[in-house]
Design brief:
- It contains ten helices and five strands, in the order βαβααααβαβαααβα.
- Strands 2-3-1-4-5 form a five-stranded parallel β-sheet, sandwiched between helices.
- The longest helix is centred in the middle third of the chain and has 29 residues.
- By secondary structure, the protein is α/β, with parallel strands linked by helices.
- Helix 2 packs across helix 5 and helix 3 runs antiparallel to helix 5.
- It is globular, with a radius of gyration of 18 Å.
- The model has no long low-confidence stretch (mean pLDDT 91).
């Protein structure tokens, strides 16, 4: 039976994951962005947004009906129990959206290569069965330098952001394929182009 070839793509903050995802989409992959789904899951009118208001307070809903994300962040930051409650609301909604978009991709093209772009793949322990997991890897120091250079963060803040996520060792432990993004942009894109060729071959083989 033909089915989409589902790739889990992950990488730490400032690893170059978005660059890889964009390149794969240019080649023809269907790109599903978990961060975008997390925003879509709590749009005005959704059950998840109503649950957030009931759990954490109506003051988190702005006059236009949208979620006040910074205010919600302030409520749950540093409080594991409240964060657990928030995740229990948002994660199932994101999973439902993920299944919907994967099904859409399959209906459009049963042989589609779908890239599920999820920063917290290690942390989230997703229920999806991936054909392959691709990790975009660069050292902590490289990522800190990128955050300072491209996002204007202080070194201390950049180190805090990098340190708050899963370690590179944890990510590499689940990788089937690793893209090393420590080098130049051209080198990263070259590895991504080679990955696409490999994915095309593997997906064809899985559907024959």
């Amino acid at each position: 039976m033909m089915s989409v070839y589902l790739i889990g793509l992950t990488g730490g903050i400032a690893s170059g994951k978005s660059t890889v995802a964009t390149r794969l989409a240019e080649h023809g992959a269907v790109h599903i962005d978990a961060d975008q789904l997390a925003r879509e899951a709590v749009e005005p009118g959704t059950d998840a947004l109503q649950n957030i208001a009931e759990t954490f307070g109506d003051h988190l809903i702005q006059p236009d009906g949208s979620l006040d994300r910074p205010a919600l962040g302030t409520v749950v930051f540093g409080n594991p129990e409240l964060l657990r409650k928030l995740n229990a609301i948002v994660h199932p909604a994101v999973q439902d959206l993920t299944r919907y978009y994967v099904k859409q991709a399959e209906e459009h093209d049963p042989n589609a290569i779908v890239i599920y772009d999820v920063p917290l793949l290690v942390e989230a322990k997703l229920p999806h069965t991936f054909n392959l997991i691709v990790v975009v890897h660069s050292t902590d120091e490289t990522r800190v330098e990128r955050l300072i250079r491209h996002r204007g963060l202080s070194r201390a803040e950049a180190q805090k952001r990098v340190g708050s996520q899963a370690s590179e060792a944890e990510r590499l432990a689940i990788a089937d394929i690793v893209i090393d993004s420590d080098g130049t942009l051209a080198e990263t894109l070259g590895q991504t182009d080679a990955l696409w060729s490999r994915l095309v071959t593997l997906s064809h083989a899985s559907n024959t």
